[in-house]
Design a protein that fits this description.
The protein is an alpha/beta fold. The chain has one domain: 2,3-Dihydroxybiphenyl 1,2-Dioxygenase, domain 1, CATH 3.10.180.10. It contains six helices and 17 strands. The protein has helices at residues 8-16, 41-52, 101-110, 158-169, 234-243, 256-259; strands at 3-5, 29-38, 55-59, 62-67, 70-76, 91-98, 114-119, 123-128, 132-138, 146-155, 172-175, 181-185, 188-194, 224-231, 250-255, 261-267, 273-278. The strands form two sheets. It has a nine-stranded mixed beta sheet with strand order 1-11-12-13-10-6-9-8-7. It has an eight-stranded mixed beta sheet with strand order 3-4-5-2-14-17-16-15. β12 (181-185) and β13 (188-194) form a beta hairpin.
């Protein structure tokens, strides 16, 4: 199999040239959006823009922020609302490259957000409202304030997850940095963290090992409800998925009159809900 090493600077530079979704891969797929379900979509939109920049876009019931290589989409929570943030779910966090770490950190702190530094003066986790985690990492060569870098998912078997995303979405084997094997889908990557229970071993002083941690929760019904991919020809792609044995949760549904999109939903084998869109690239 062929591996493509994608340094952070290359990913960021590629993403930065797209004011919307990136040109698709040969399968017709590119990264699409991060979907947040919250009580106040307009307030969340302002918070994202205050930290990461971007452009506000509204289409029907969709409140959006357009960033290089990705959209944030916010919709109104209903009833009791979502059950939890991204941490603890299969969609652990989303990643962005930023031109200035110091400036972005200052903006996050000014917005009252928690910043957990990972690499001094370079990289951190920023906790957005409702415990939605966004990783930021500096790339001083970035021509824009920020740009999409990666989805970071929790899975029980990283190899199985890579194979599934490569087969399903025509991704290529890729690494943002050595030792972190993921899947390249324009303009970034999908990275995987091992989320399964530990294998074997003993507890302290020979005691039985502690019980394994609870598996990550599925994303549906959480504040970060799903991630999205833009599809060049949604009807044809859904037919291909069905032929390959992928269960379609819903759609394709033509919502072009309501908000300019055709949509469909699937769920990956590990619990991450995925929306497939056609038309987001034109927003």
């Amino acid at each position: 199999m062929r591996w493509l090493l994608l340094p952070v600077s290359l990913l960021a530079a590629a993403a930065a040239f797209f004011a919307q979704t990136a040109p698709p891969n040969p399968t017709g797929i590119s990264a699409g959006h991060i979907h947040i379900v919250v009580a106040d979509p307009a307030a969340y939109q302002k918070t994202i823009m205050s930290v990461l920049g971007g452009t506000s876009v509204n289409a029907g019931p969709l409140t959006m922020v357009k960033l290089p290589g990705i959209f944030f989409i916010m919709t109104q929570a209903k009833g009791a609302g979502p059950s939890g943030g991204s941490k603890g779910s299969t969609a652990d966090h989303m990643g962005f490259s930023v031109k200035s770490y110091a400036a972005t950190k200052a903006k996050a702190e000014a917005a009252g957000l928690k910043v957990q530094e990972l690499t001094a003066n370079v990289q951190a986790f920023v906790t957005f409202p409702n415990d939605v985690i966004v990783e930021i990492q500096e790339d001083a060569a970035l021509p824009t304030e920020s740009a999409f870098s990666h989805f970071h998912l929790m899975v029980p078997d990283q190899n199985v997850a890579r194979d599934w995303y490569m087969k399903t979405f025509g991704g290529v084997e890729a690494q943002r940095r050595p030792g972190l094997k993921g899947v390249g889908i324009p303009p970034g990557t999908i990275d995987f963290l091992g989320g399964g229970p530990p294998r074997g071993g003993k507890g302290k002083d020979g005691a039985p090992p502690p019980p394994p941690p609870a598996p990550p929760a599925a994303t549906a019904g959480r504040f970060l409800d799903h991630i999205g991919f833009e599809v060049k020809d949604l009807d044809a792609f859904v037919k291909k998925l069905q032929a390959d044995g992928v269960k379609i949760d819903s759609g394709p549904t033509d919502m072009t009159k309501q908000f300019g999109l055709k949509i469909a939903f699937i769920t990956d084998p590990f619990g991450t809900r995925i929306e497939l869109t056609e038309g987001l690239s034109k927003q």
